[in-house]
Amino acid sequence: MPAQKEAERKRQLKERIFTVSADEIDYIRLINRGQDYRLEKTANGWMLVKPKRLIADQKIISKIIEVLNKERIIKVVATDLKRMDEFGLTSPVIYAAFGHRGGLEEFFIGRPAPAKAGAYLYKKGLDGIFLVSLDVAGALNQTLYGLRKKEPFVFDETSVKKIVIERKDDRLEMVREENGWFMLSPVKGRCSDKTVWRFIEEMKTLRADEFYDGKKPKPSDYDKSVRIKLFFDDKT
Predict the structure, then answer these.
(1) Which tens digits make up the pLDDT trace of 128-168?
(2) Is 52 exposed, middle or buried (0-12, 13-18, 19+ CB in 10 A)?
């Protein structure tokens, strides 16, 4: 396309690649590396419903939407959609769909451009093949680990009433009273409230490096481990 016409086309489309806020989106589908991932927004946040039903990583979902909303077209590569195969868009590397208030935004990500100048993208409904930054492909290049919640423990830190830490024959027990935390064993005395609360916060924000779904650990494999128990009003 002549430079002037290309510039005009770019100006017209740059705000139309993705302009949906996170609050409006209620459904996401990603197909990456042959794996189909589906996420739905619930009253309690995002849930991964396929291939497994798991709590989703809210930060990752927000990051994906943020990257797409910030993205601008680098170049209008072609307006002839018959050339989609030429840019790897007939069988895309990544497919992404975002449902929002009855509408659906569909993206097809092709192979990277030469010299990694960006990635080829086609959005259904727009008569054009575009070059966008690799940030888009990076944000959508998700796996099960990337999409699922990494924090293995979900609890309200203000509800913790008692903490027990056990290692072999050693036992450390602390309880929360109205005026702070107190140690019951191995010695009795006042705890550092700041240290205890920091410990609880670290437990809550702990992130898993890997998941071993469906595998039950053998106690013999953890003879050098530490057992940590958090007690609440209604459960441990």
Answers:
(1) 888 899 999 999 999 999 999 998 888 889 999 999 999 88
(2) exposed
Half-sphere exposure of 91 (CA within 13 A, CB side): 2
- Closest by CA to 183, choosing from 171, 194, 195, 191, is 191
Model confidence over 85-121: pLDDT tens digits? 999 999 999 999 999 888 888 999 998 888 778 999 9
Could you tell me if 103 and 124 are in contact, meaning their C-beta atoms sit under 8 angstroms apart?
no
Return all residues near 180 (Cβ < 8 A) that are at least 6 apart: 190, 191, 193
What the block records as the tokens of 60 is: 């990752």
Indicate whether this model's pTM tops 0.90.
no
Q: Please answer whether residues 39 and 147 qualify as being in contact, where contact means their C-beta atoms are separated by less than 8 angstroms.
A: yes
Amino acid at 134: L
